[in-house]
Amino acid sequence: MSTPPDGLPVYRVLTGPDDERFCRRVSEALALGYELHEGPAVTFNGENVIVAQAVVWPEGR
């Protein structure tokens, strides 16, 4: 199994407010070759919607 670029881990959980910056981080991970792992988790902290999205490096890449 190859490894992700730049020493990144095989499994990552991206978290943050549900905004353009968060969406860009997920999009960047996908562009590197990561795949979504399941759907996102969403919560509300009383002020903002907070999202968590796991991404994984596919085996055999």
How many helices? The count is 1
Uncertain ranges: none
- Report the end-to-end length measured between terminal Cα atoms: 7 Å
Order of helices and strands: EHEE
Tell me roughly what share of residues is in helical segments: 10-25%
The helix/strand class is alpha+beta
Provide the gyration radius in Å.
Answer: 13 Å
Strand content: 35-45%
Can you tell me the overall shape? elongated
**Order of strands across the biggest sheet?**
1-3-2
Whole-number average pLDDT? 95
| Sheet with most strands | 3 strands, antiparallel
Domain DUF1737: 10-56
Protein name: DUF1737 domain-containing protein
Organism: Glycomyces endophyticus
Pfam families: DUF1737 (PF08410)
What does this structure look like?
The protein is of the alpha+beta class. It has one domain (5-56). Helix content is 21%, strand content 41%. The chain has one helix at residues 20-32, and strands at residues 11-17, 35-44, 49-56. It has a 3-stranded antiparallel beta sheet with strand order 1-3-2, with helices on one face. The longest helix has 13 residues, at 20-32. The radius of gyration is 13 Å and the shape is elongated. The protein starts with 10 loop residues before the first strand and ends in a 5-residue tail after the last strand. Residues 10-56 form the DUF1737 domain.
